[in-house]
């Protein structure tokens, strides 16, 4: 008797829940219909799925990732379907866009309608509380706090970058002629960033590792690798982690605390602008550590990727390399007296960096999540110009990589590396919105990168020093020259080169002959 009573009760609860769900879905559909009518929204074209719940989309992404061709897959979908598309991804509706007007809405005009989604939960164990994963008032406070110590007056004379580049040149001069620059650039940017942020470099370029000793770079890489995996499956991020991840995060925190404590116990000095400025207004040690780790994540890999792709492209385009060398030789007789202002005057160098970030933006794909039902201004309807309704909770992914390769924005040769285009009248410059929002390697709007100038200065300085020091820099014999974008790429939080960046600095004798 009691058993049938409980079965009946369970049945009634199930029926009630189903009815509630149906009514809720109906009401939501009606509300969306009204909203769409009010704003003239029409559906965006949909990526066709071959399997229910968009499972095939997940399979494609995993395959693309395994084959190191994820960006090609995204480009294919945009070209085939449209610049703004709707897709079903593991049972939920999501949107993808490479339309400058939509990016303006997402990142600026409708900024308040969007959040960072699950970024905080995904990154918190490693990053702690920092600008990268904060929102609202806490984020605004962090921006106000971090902006002043990142101002260019603190690295105008370039001393912040000098030691790291000296160490890099020592390594390149002492090793064999052909060398993979990519891992060295990751170590260079770690050294420069720790020097600038903590007031003390971890010296990953020059410190030989003693047996069994873990380095800061290693513990940092290990924790960050798991964070990357958690980003891949945002709805199921909690399944990825476990005790190994917790231990890796704890190691990062211990390393960072040790360096912070050591430096704060010294009396303040020139090399510690950043740590002093942040420590002054952040009494809480966890908060201080959170900001510094967030900045290391934001600044290290992205700048290393920029330098890697710059040399990857330069050795494959010898004429560009020679033109750049001529500009550097004319403007820099003694690198010891270089300043940031000198670097900014080298217009071809700036074009080379702009063009590299166009073809290989360090953060090629990013997402936002709608906090409330809202609108993207274009991409819907038969002619794909009507506004598109974005229901509350939907993810909007935007691919800077694919947008930067649009021929209607950059010309028919958009896939080619041609720094000269930055001095020309590119198609995107004929429209104000496209001109402002069609090139976004550093994001835009209120959350634009705070390290933009720091990164471009560090990269420019490194390029100048290496070209000045080595009269011969070339593609090693036997290295492939493929169409840009077809080479293998590794997508973590940033886009790196799967096969590294092999460069031939020629033998010492050849260098001397050429000098
Ligand atoms: C080539 C190098 C770099 C690139 C391409 C780059 C790109 C970006 C992008 C795309 C974002 C937006 C992320 C998002 O909102 O989802 C961002 C944010 C940020 N970047 Fe960079 N970045 C670079 C270097 C740096 C450096 C060197 C630093 C600091 C030293 C830095 C500090 C930051 C900070 C603090 C944010 C967060 C801004 C906020 O949320 O308000 N970045 N960066």
UniProtKB/TrEMBL annotation:
Checking SUPFAM superfamilies in the record gives:
Cytochrome P450
Q: Where does heme bind?
A: 449
Transmembrane portions of the chain: 6-23
Per its Swiss-Prot or TrEMBL entry, what cofactor is needed?
heme
GO molecular function: any one?
A: heme binding
Could you tell me which Pfam families the record lists for this protein? p450
InterPro entries, per the entry: Cyt_P450, Cyt_P450_CS, Cyt_P450_E_CYP52_ascomycetes, Cyt_P450_E_CYP52_fungi, Cyt_P450_E_grp-II, Cyt_P450_sf
Which UniProt keywords are listed?
Heme, Iron, Membrane, Metal-binding, Monooxygenase, Oxidoreductase, Transmembrane, Transmembrane helix
Give the protein family. Belongs to the cytochrome P450 family.
The identity of this protein, by name, is Cytochrome P450 alkane hydroxylase
